[in-house]
Amino acid sequence: MSQENVDDYLRGVAAWNNGDLDGWLATVNPGGEFRTSGMFPGVQRVYRGVEGMRKLWADMRGPWQKFHMNIERIEDLDDSVLALFTFEVTGRDGLTTSRRWAHVAKYDNGTAITTDNYASWEQALKAVGLEE
């Protein structure tokens, strides 16, 4: 099931990058959780279910004119997917910035049940027992 998990994750990223809320929500587990790093003000610590993901979409994309995830490394870990990426954002004022970020998405029967966010690649690698 693991390659299917990677494919599912990548479908979600493609929808996110295209600004396709419905496409992104189609990859969301209705009972799933998205756990943020706690690093960004105004962003909840945990978002649950489809309505929670709608709120996450608004909270994360709202301040930005553009929000794009560039996958740098993706690892199939059987029941989890590790994604190391750089997100690039453009503010409403036209200013751009980027930051390295990571997700560890845990799957059950082909559906993501949790996605944990990490503010550094090193933290995510350590969380799954890998070294850079």
Kindly describe this structure:
This protein has about 130 residues and is α+β, with helices and mostly antiparallel strands. The chain has a single domain, classed as Nuclear Transport Factor 2, Chain: A, CATH 3.10.450. It is about 30% helix and about 40% strand. It has helices spanning about 1-15, 20-25, 50-60, 120-125; strands at about 35, 45-50, 65-75, 80-90, 95-110, 110-120. A 6-stranded mixed sheet has the order 2-1-6-5-4-3, with helices on both faces. The two termini are about 25 Å apart. The model has no long low-confidence stretch (mean pLDDT about 95).
Keywords, separated by commas or semicolons:
132 residues, Nuclear Transport Factor 2, Chain: A, globular, 4 helices, alpha+beta
